[in-house]
Design brief:
The chain is of the alpha+beta class. The chain is built from 9 helices and 22 strands. Helix 3 packs across helix 5. The radius of gyration is 20 Å and the shape is globular. The N terminus is likely disordered.
Amino acid sequence: MKKILSLVAVIFSIMTFAQQGKVKRVAAVGFLNVENLWDTIRSADYIDGTKDKTNPAFHRSIPLDSVKFLEAEKYEGQWSDGLLVGKKVVRYQSGSEEFTPSSGKNYNTKIYKKKLENEAKVISELGSQYTKTAPAVVGLIEVENRQVIEDLIKEPALAKYDYGIVHYNSYDYRGIDVALIYQKRRFTVTNSLKKELKVYGEEGKREYTRDILVVTGLLDNEKVAFFMNHWPSRRGGEAASLPKRNAAATLLKQQMDSIRTADPETKLFAMGDFNDDPVSASLKNYLKAAGSEKDLSDEKPYLNLMYPLYKKGVASLAYQDAPNLFDQIIVSKNLVLDKNPKSYSVYKAEVFAPPYLVNKEGNYKGYPFRSWNGDQFTGGYSDHFPAFVILQKEP
């Protein structure tokens, strides 16, 4: 098992783009599960339905102590943007007390600052062995609110790159979201939205999970779209929970198909923690993500860049000694089949596992060096290895 996981430490190529002589411009796009990046303040969500749903202030995180100063009505219905238009309500987060100084974790400012420093270091290095700089666009998984992202991009490892933020609060039962940060000089946002994923348990009761974040824009003047995902977990068992991930795959495909149909030139990137492997039914049968270029077609226009790594035994996490490659990047076929050297195409994709992200001893040798061991802060980074794709084109 540990031998298999050791394969995750991807061997860095010694061949540079300059040596190839034909690639002059590169960009890294990647993502990282920041493993519960919470601030130290107990929070609640405030939904102000008098604002436009596309406005992040429609649904924002506030300190719990602020609730008494806000206008709010009692609400006992389902949590959904559409149902809350015109209302002002408070939603209490079930996970916020766990990450406070008074909790068993003793989650204080010192730990929070170390978390920010660690995550910023990883992000700044995604793809840097190829690009010699920080990534142009980065997805984030498991952020509490916009404030923690603001704090993250101010870290010294990231501040000089002037990252912008796209984030919307979700109705996730724990209060965690997905987000996107981007270098403003390289990527311009033209539109962003969240698509609520509505899934239900065995008794037909709504289960609240993360949204799919959709962001379109111009990456170095090329039309692109990003879809950030954190699909429902395998809580309750893989088979029992699979319909929820199938629903997520269906929603993602709808969103990707919609943008591709409206403008076939737009280049699409779906990435995140899918809580399934590249061979799982959700990705193969519902999203219909192909495993190789030869399988691409009009019916299968999306390529899972992680499939070849999965076949080689590469993993991005492990649970109870079972390795998985849940962290994946899926792209539209124009990123691999179009041969215009003046526009971006995929050079390669990797799971990022430098030595400092890997446990070196003990029962979890070879696993990701995670931040928490129960309530004990380890000084680590994440329970997932991040992933990135390198894009290339001639100037």
